[in-house]
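Hi support team,

I've been running sequence recovery on a batch of backbones for a student project. Most finish fine, but this one hangs at about 90% for roughly twenty minutes before it completes. I'm not sure whether the input is malformed or the queue is just slow. I've pasted the structure tokens below so you can try to reproduce it. Let me know if you need the job ID as well.

Thanks,
M.K.
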């Protein structure tokens, strides 16, 4: 995987691969230097005693060492585990207990497991490794485990998602099916280095085709992004819907002559935001639907824009179906659960140490996404919502059960339920509704959540209710709760 991503370094070592941009300047990496840094880290990790198959837990922030360490570990035959820097000590301790890493790479100020189960290599030491003489890449079966990412499972417990090396090859289906990506492109991705959306769309894909990746420096505000797009001749712009919203809040007109189009993923893009962006810039926004288990597989593209109201078409090479409750494909125009065929090369190997949960996601040869959808006569897919209660926080799927399990331990809470609440047009946040003897100080609840949950998982509003609404079968009615926000 790592050798594939940086193969262009052999033929274009002097081409700009990465520029970390800010209003005051830019730090630049050419393909040759980038490949050397990755190969050096790979050799350095092996020299530190790590062996092929060992797992490496990543505790790095919004810095270039994140993608360098990720690819360096894979080149060395290790299995990197990129984990959000926002995770708390209890959260990362549980992940470390599950994944049993042989080592951890860590930057200052980012939570570590307690107790720490293995040696910790500093970000400074990673930087020292970049100049290590390279060793040959550890090549092997493309179906073997390459990396593990964590997603918030429907069981309420985050699950490790195991991906094979072949997953990066499957990403080629996005080049035409979503991006319209060319080797001459300059793609600016508004996310941080340590977000998997940035890692894949903003870095790995541009590098694999030989394009230039542009990443805003840490601390860059959304209002400053248009300046960076124009100053650095960005031809593509990728961001979560919230970033588009914040840019439009600060700019009523934008002059971006080199920008061909925008890309959006992470959560559903409101039509109001899409329309406003096109009116402000003259450029379309193409949206993609995906998940941690298979990245994106459904999208609009410059060659085939999504019809109004739909999420687009299956990317060329993908095989999708809409299933009924029995797991059989339904006719076009009939709602059901969206599913991906098990032969898809981008589909995960499975959930870490959870064969039963993995098996539960399959209906025969189909992997069910949990998204309710309808396939139109022309093959476009209209997203209709979720068939479970998963929430979306800053582009990351979060289970309400995970948050509820933490907050239910707070004294004075009898019952608690979390759901998404629309606080204003096109803006949704996680809300926590609890019953108990009386209303609790919100500041105390906020502090308790911050101590035990990553910031993106923390509720943004708390409401005391006499009781939680329930359906006829006794389950909490989250839709009824959402209307109380």
């Amino acid at each position: 995987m790592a050798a594939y991503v940086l193969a262009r370094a052999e033929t274009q070592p002097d081409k700009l691969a990465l520029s970390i941009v800010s209003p005051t300047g830019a730090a630049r990496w050419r393909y040759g230097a980038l490949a050397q840094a990755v190969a050096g880290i790979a050799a350095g990790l092996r020299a530190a005693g790590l062996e092929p198959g060992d797992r490496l837990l990543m505790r790095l922030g919004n810095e270039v060492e994140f993608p360098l360490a990720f690819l360096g570990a894979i080149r060395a035959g290790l299995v990197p585990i990129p984990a959000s820097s926002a995770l708390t000590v209890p959260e990362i301790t549980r992940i470390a207990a599950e994944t049993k890493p042989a080592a951890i790479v860590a930057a200052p100020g980012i939570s570590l497991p307690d107790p720490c189960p293995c040696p910790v290599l500093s970000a400074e030491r990673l930087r020292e490794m970049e100049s290590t003489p390279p060793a040959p890449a550890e090549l092997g079966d493309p179906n073997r485990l390459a990396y593990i990412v964590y997603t918030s499972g429907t069981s309420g417990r985050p699950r490790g998602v195991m991906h094979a090396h072949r997953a990066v090859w499957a990403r080629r289906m996005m080049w035409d099916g979503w991006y319209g990506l060319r080797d001459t492109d300059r793609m600016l991705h508004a996310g941080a280095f340590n977000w998997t959306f940035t890692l894949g769309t903003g870095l790995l894909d541009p590098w694999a085709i030989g394009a230039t990746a542009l990443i805003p420096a840490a601390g860059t505000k959304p209002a400053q992004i248009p300046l960076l797009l124009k100053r650095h001749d960005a031809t593509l712009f990728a961001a979560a819907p919230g970033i588009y919203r914040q840019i439009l809040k600060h700019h009523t007109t934008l002059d971006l002559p080199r920008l061909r189009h925008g890309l959006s993923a992470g959560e559903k893009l409101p039509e109001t935001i899409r329309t406003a962006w096109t009116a402000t810039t003259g450029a379309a926004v193409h949206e993609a639907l995906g998940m941690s288990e298979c990245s994106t597989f459904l999208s609009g593209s410059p060659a085939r824009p999504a019809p109004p109201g739909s999420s687009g078409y299956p990317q060329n090479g993908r095989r999708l179906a809409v299933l009924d409750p029995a797991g059989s494909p339904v006719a076009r125009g009939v709602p059901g659960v969206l599913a991906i065929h098990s032969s898809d090369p981008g589909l995960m190997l499975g959930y870490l140490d959870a064969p039963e949960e993995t098996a539960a996601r399959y209906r025969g040869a189909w992997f069910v996404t949990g998204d309710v959808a309808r396939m139109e006569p022309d093959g476009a897919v209209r997203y209709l919502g979720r068939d479970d209660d998963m929430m979306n926080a800053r582009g990351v799927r979060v289970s309400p059960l995970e948050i509820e399990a933490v907050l239910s331990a707070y004294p004075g809470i009898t019952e608690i339920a979390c759901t998404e609440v629309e606080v204003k047009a096109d803006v949704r946040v996680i809300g926590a509704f609890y019953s108990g003897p009386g209303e609790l100080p919100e500041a105390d609840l906020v502090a308790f959540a911050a101590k035990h949950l990553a910031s993106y998982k923390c509720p943004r509003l708390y409401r005391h209710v006499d009781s939680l609404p329930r359906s006829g079968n006794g389950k909490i009615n989250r839709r009824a709760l959402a209307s109380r926000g």
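--
Follow-up from support: It reproduced on our side and the slowdown came from queue contention, not your input. Residues 151 and 159 are 5 Å apart (CA to CA). No action needed from you.
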